[in-house]
Amino acid sequence: MTTPDLFQTVATTTAAVCAGATGGVYVAFSTMVMPALNSRAGSEAIGAMQRINVLAVRPPFMVLFFGGAVASVVAGATSGMSDAQGLLRLTGAALSLASFGVTVVVNVPLNNRLARVSGAADPAAWQSFAQPWARANTLRGLLALAGAAALAGSLTR
């Protein structure tokens, strides 16, 4: 294997693993955590989500989140479009980056808005937050998992 091939394989593998891990977190959150939060009083759900959002912005998740985005850019940029593997790699990178984009454009602004809410003062704020956040979260999870599958599939020869 030549150095450029090794570099592309490492970038693609890293992007696939990071997309799969983040996608799994997002889907687990949508299928388990959000239903649990929705069963609580609005003020309790707000407090819990605010704490989760603080804990999420730490190295273990941030390395996967930003590292996966960088690896996806590299994997996509090194993809040739002359064969099925290159197109699959490019598609996987694009799907993974779309998941990153949903996070930046939808989930993070909603999280930031929720951070400024006092659940005790405005328990109804949970209802205006939960549904759009959960929809975007499910979308980013599905995009990431599809991206991981395509990136992994592009590694077969």
Write a compact overview of the structure shown.
The chain is mainly alpha-helical.
Tell me about this structure.
The chain is mainly α. It has one domain (3-153). It is built from five helices and no strands. The chain has helices spanning 3-38, 42-56, 59-77, 84-115, 125-153. Helix 1 packs parallel to helix 4 (84-115) and helix 3 packs antiparallel against helix 4 (84-115). The longest helix has 36 residues, at 3-38. The chain is elongated. The two termini are 13 Å apart.
Number of domains: 1
Helicity, in percent? over 70%
The proportion of residues in beta strands is under 5%
SS field, number of helical segments: 5
Category from helices, strands and their pairing? mainly alpha
Tell me about the biggest sheet? none
Please tally the β strands and state the result. 0
Q: Span from first to last CA?
A: 13 Å
Q: Which radius of gyration do the C-alpha atoms yield? A: 18 Å
How are the SSEs placed, and which strands pair?
Blueprint: H1 3-38, H2 42-56, H3 59-77, H4 84-115, H5 125-153
Question: What brief labels describe this structure?
Answer:
157 residues, mainly alpha, 5 helices, 83% helix, 0% strand, elongated
